Amino acid sequence: MASGLGFAPGLHRMTDLVTPNEFRAALGRFASGVTVITVETPAGEVHGMTANAFCSVSLRPPLVLVCIDHLAETYLHIRERRQFGVSVLKEEQEALSEFFADPERNHDAAYRLGVQYRPMQSGTPVLQNALANLDCSVVNAYDGGDHTIFVGEVKEVVVAEGTPLLYFRGRYGICDGPQEP
Question: Tens of pLDDT along 87-138?
Fold first, then answer.
């Protein structure tokens, strides 16, 4: 490999010993923020999904990544559009996270929840009243098992005040730490 890094022979066989339940239990102990990934569909509608497999990659250029299951409708839309929005949820937005995590959601539920979008400068839709919004253009996509890792260059950010919604061990929580001035 060009980087000089290599893998120990036989390392890939070790993962056969880890069951999906063990893997889920271990990673459930990693606290994460909660985001909603949004994309405009070819029909001009907004499609979104809850994602906690999201993180920063680089400051220069500003890059983030999100991992999306190949079976998710969002995967197809991002693959086609090559752009997506990220909305970082506030502690009081747990119901939005649940809504976007449900693949069977309907428009009536969105109306009852008061789901509202706003366009970023590029037109990418994001959720209104989120803790932060990012407008991203896909610069790379990598296979990662049953997911694709989309790397997006951040073209615009909007930040607000509030406390983040957290996810830990299959449950939602809030951050009790000090807030920014």
Answer: 999 999 999 999 999 988 887 888 899 999 999 999 999 999 999 999 999 9
Residues in contact with 10: Cβ distance below 8 Å, sequence separation at least 6, in sequence order: none
| pLDDT for residue 177 | 58
SS3 for 11?
Answer: helix
- Omega before 61 cis (within 30°)? yes
One-letter identity of residue 86:
V
Q: What is the full DSSP assignment across 55-112?
A: EEEETTTTEEEEEEETTSHHHHHHHHH-EEEEEEPBGGGHHHHHHHH-TT--HHHHHH
* DSSP type of residue 164: B
Residues 122/135, Cβ–Cβ less than 8 Å: yes
* Domains observed in the chain: 32-167 (2.30.110.10)
Q: Across 20-29, 141-150, 163-172, which has the greatest mean pLDDT?
A: 141-150
